[in-house]
Design brief:
With 207 residues, the chain is mostly helical. 76% of the residues lie in helices and 0% in strands. It has two domains: 1-56, Homeodomain-like (Arc Repressor Mutant, subunit A), CATH 1.10.10.60; 64-199, Tetracycline Repressor, domain 2 (Orthogonal Bundle), CATH 1.10.357.10.
């Protein structure tokens, strides 16, 4: 008869894996990919070294997997926020609010995606390119909608979305470098929104 682990055993394993993944995000964000060690991660997660190797063969595999999961988390948050609104100003504000919220309350996630591992993990290049492409696509969709409604001037919406993605990332990174980032978050959000509407030459109502 094949062995089947009990629900309790599976839950215990899931809890350890989740703790390790959360700890790894923080460790990589704080120390950078090269300086972070497996021992740092297991100590931060309060699990045994053997637990790490039960799930991952090495640090690079963990980092790539972690990058994929955090990228999916951020993209889903922005996508759901944009899809919940109807007009370009509302869509951009909701998407940016989702991005800012994650940056303020889960800063290690943003650090991991925008800074951690860049150029350090060769296996990450394709994953990073895919993440950037999906992010650009998210910002382009509301522009395409507004363009179809002639609410923005004729333009290459792909290029505008590329500019948005780079500009928003830069603002977010600089925001996180501020000593009182949470207090500055609302202003940063409004500044990014106004920049986006001006850059897209939006001609409709701002509501």
């Amino acid at each position: 008869m094949p062995y089947h682990s009990s629900d309790k055993t599976r839950q215990k394993k899931d809890t350890k894996r989740t703790a390790m993944m959360q700890a790894a995000v923080r460790v990589f964000a704080e120390k950078g990919y090269h300086a972070a060690t497996i021992r740092d991660i297991v100590q931060a997660a309060d699990v045994a070294v053997g637990t790490f190797y039960f799930y991952f063969p090495d640090k690079e595999t963990l980092f790539v997997h972690l990058y994929e999961e955090t990228a999916q988390f951020l993209l889903q948050a922005i996508q759901q926020a944009i899809q919940s609104r109807a007009t370009l100003p509302q869509q951009m504000k909701a998407g940016l609010q989702a991005y800012v919220n994650i940056a303020i309350f889960e800063p290690a996630v943003v650090q991991l995606l925008l800074v951690g591992g860049v150029g350090a993990v060769p296996a990450l290049m394709d994953k990073r390119a895919a993440f950037r492409e999906r992010l650009i696509t998210l910002w382009q969709r509301p522009l395409d909608q507004a363009h179809a409604q002639t609410l923005i001037l004729p333009q290459n919406t792909r290029r505008t979305a590329e500019a948005f993605a780079g500009a928003f990332d830069e603002v977010i990174l600089n925001l996180l470098a501020q000593p009182e980032a949470e207090r500055e978050a609302h202003t940063a959000l409004q500044d990014m929104l106004q920049f986006a509407l001006r850059a897209a030459a939006y001609t409709g109502s701002n509501s």
